[in-house]
Amino acid sequence: MNDSESEPEQRSSLRLVNLHVRAGSTPLLSDTSLAIANKKITVIVGGSGAGKSVLLRTIAGLIPRDGETISWSGDIEFGADDAGKANQRVGIVFQQFALFDELSPTENIQFAIDHRSNRSSPPEQTAAQWLDELGVPSKTRVAGLSGGQRQRLAIARTLAGDPEIVLYDEPTSGLDSASGRKVAQLIQQTHRSHGRTSIVVTHDYETLIPIADEVLLLDSENKQLVSVPRAEWSKIPGRMKPVTLNHANPPPATAAEIATRSGDEFITATGAAVLAALKLPYDALPLFPRPKWGVRFFAHYLRLVGGVSAWIYLILAGMIIGFTSTYFTFKFLPFRLYTQPLLIDE
Fold first, then answer.
1. Are strands 165-169 and 90-93 parallel, antiparallel or unpaired?
2. Distance between alpha carbon 135 and the CA centroid of its chain, in Å?
3. What's the rounded Cα separation, in Å, for the pair 59 and 36?
4. What is the rounded CA–CA span in Å between residue 172 and residue 203?
5. Which of 54, 277, 293, 333 is such that its CA lies 20 to 30 A from the CA of 180?
6. DSSP of 167-208
7. In angstroms, rounded to a whole number, what is the distance separating the alpha carbons of residues 142 and 153?
C-alpha cells in the first residue's frame, strides 16, 4: 500500500474499537472495529431498524454505556485534528432539528457561539454571517420558518458551535427527491467551505451516496459496520435489509424467578431513589457555561409558570376543586349538617 492509500488510516477522524451496541437483548453491532477518515463525507447506510441513528447518538456521546434500553461497550477514539487535539468536539444535526422556538434564529446561533469549547479565540463567523451563508431569514420567528429553512438553521447552529466532527441524522427524511437533493448539495457545500469531518446516517442512499467520499454499510444480518468499495456502491440496495424481530415467546417464569426479579427491581429502584435524593442539592445547582443564558432560560420558564396563562389555569383549577369538594361535602360526607353551615360561614 502506498502513502496516499494509507493517508485516511493515518489521519482518521475517529476509530471504533471492538464496539458492541445492544438494544435490550437485541445486538445491533458486534465487535466492530474501523476508522472513519478525517475531513471526508462518510455516509452510513442500512436497512430500516438496523440501528443507524442509535450508532450516531452513541458516537455523539448521547447514550450511556449501561443505559436501560440501549447499552454499548468498546471504545470510541477520536483522532488528533490539525491543532493536535485528541478529544475532538462533536456536533449533531438532529432529524427533528431540536431548535429553540422561543429564541430568534440569530439567538439560536449565538447560543452555539457562546458555548464553543474554546471561547478565548474569536468565532469563525458572527451569527448574522452564518444566517446569511445558509440563507436563513433573521427576522422570522423559528416557528414560522419552513422545513428547509429550519434545517438550514440547524446546520448553521451546529457549525457555529465549532465542532471538528458534524453528524447528520437522516437529513432527507420526509423530503421529496428534489428537496432531498438540495439538502445533499447543502451538506456538500458546507463541508467544502468549512472543512469538517461529516458523518451522515441515512436510508436514502440514492440521494446522499453521490456526495460521499466513503460509504459504510450497517449490515443487519452480520451485525457489522463494513466499508463498501466505490466499485460496489451500485450493489448497496440489495445489501440493505430491514431488521426482522424475533417474536418467540419466552418460557413462563417460575415463582422463584418472579420473586427474585421483583426483589431485584425493588432494591434497584430504592437505590436509585436514595442516590437521586443525595444528588438533589448538586443537581439543583444551576451550572451554565454562560451566566446570561442561564438567567435567560430561568426568566423564560419563570414566565411560563408565573405568567398570565399560568394564573388563569390556577384560577380554573381552584374553581373546579372548590366546587367538587363542596358538592361532595354537602351530598355524601357524614356530619354534613355540621360541615355545611361551617363551610358557608367560613
1. parallel
2. 24
3. 12
4. 9
5. 54
6. EEESTTTT--HHHHHHHHHHHHHHHHHH--EEEEEES-HHHH
7. 9
Q: Show pLDDT as tens, one digit a residue, over the chain (346 residues).
A: 344 444 434 467 889 999 999 988 889 999 999 999 899 999 999 888 888 999 999 999 999 998 888 999 999 998 765 555 555 789 999 989 999 998 899 999 999 999 888 888 899 999 999 999 999 999 999 999 988 899 999 999 999 999 999 999 999 887 888 888 999 999 999 999 998 999 999 988 889 999 999 999 998 888 999 999 999 998 888 888 776 655 456 678 788 788 788 888 878 878 888 888 888 777 666 667 778 888 887 888 788 778 888 889 889 999 999 888 877 777 776 666 666 676 666 6
Residue 163 C-alpha cell reads as 465542532
CA distances to 52, 93, 211, 265, 344 from 187, in Å: 18, 11, 8, 46, 70
The Cα–Cα gap between 46 and 170 comes to 11
Output the nine-digit C-alpha cell for 140.
422570522
Contact 55, 217 (CB under 8 A): no
Q: What is the DSSP string of 294-312?
A: HHHHHHHHHHHHHSHHHHH
Render 204-245 in DSSP notation, one character per residue. -HHHHGGG-SEEEEEETTTTEEEEE-GGGGGGHHHH------
For 315, other C-beta atoms within 10 Å of its C-beta total 10
Place of cell 456538500: 188
| Matching residue, cell 451550572 | 287
